[in-house]
Amino acid sequence: FAAPLLQGQKILLTAGPTREAIDPVRYISNHSSGKMGFALASAAASMGATVTLVSGPVTLPTPTGVQRIDVESAQQMFDAVMAHLPEQQIFIGCAAVADYRAATPAASKIKKSQDTMQLQLVRNPDILATVAAQTPKPFTVGFAAETHDLEQYALDKLQRKHLDMIAANDVSVAGLGFNADDNALKVFTKDGCHELPATDKLSLANQLLTLIANYKN
Ligand code: PMT
Question: How far is CA 98 from the centre of its chain?
Answer without folding.
Answer: 11
